[in-house]
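Changelog-adjacent note: as of this version, every example in the card shows the full chain rather than a window. The one below runs 305 residues end to end.
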Amino acid sequence: MTLVASDSHLSTLPAERGQLKDEQTQKFVLTLSCVEQPGIVQAVTTFLFDRGFNIEEHQQFDDSLRQTLHLRTAFSGPQSYSPEQLDAEFRSIADRFDMQFSFHDQTKQRVLVMVSKFGHCLNDLIFRWRGGSLGGELVAVVSNHETHRAMAEAAGLPFIHIPVTPDTKAEAEQRLLELVDEYEADLVVLARYMQVLSNDLCRKLEGRAINIHHSFLPGFKGARPYHQAYDRGVKQVGATAHYVTADLDEGPIIEQEVIRVDHSYGPNALSTVGQDAEALALSRAVRWHCEHRVLLDRTSTVVFR
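Full-length structure tokens:
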């Protein structure tokens, strides 16, 4: 129930009560996937109720084609609990239903961004991060060019230049992995990073690296995509944010954005519109991942918005 105070009380009581509530509770998110069967939701809600938790948001998807259930439950309650403790106590339920599951607290995901010469996606991520709407915490920017050092450093982010050539590719990727560990990055974002990652690196970053592609996959691959689009007379410009896999530009899709265009758009105009689509799709994908709203399902995803 929500109570609306009179104007004379707006500056005191609601704020104080909200602050007190936040100080006394802790928020968590549970995500899980398993074969669809009776009793799963009851087991989850009973587990939370018995420990004094309050469910604040619950979403589930029953996939009748694959006979699987995917679930995301946000809840709050006693500060005495930790994700590790909840994990241990939930284990017997998970074993009974053969679940893949994770508990998460309010700790923000740490995000390392990789960029080359195009800076629109990096700029958008920084803007949303500084405005508090990204969902994660940017911790560093890595690039194979010096182009965007000033942008990163102006935002207070470390900028690490790692040149990449065919002869130094292996060393560059090893350095990247060292930086992921050094900055304790939970997520790596390829914000128009124009280098193909090796199969080995893709496997090591599986499920925790997001790329943005300049079209609806798999169309218009390769160089000069907007010139290809212009030559084909496209009527929609799109962008695809997906998880990185060893199969180039074929990872599980998280988000796609589309903007309608017409015959009057030349390559430069299409590029400008396309960059808007890329920034929108990527920022949404990053936020949803950081808020634990994306569940991997084989070669696809379930996204609880």
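Structural remarks: Residues 1-20 have pLDDT under 50 and may be disordered.
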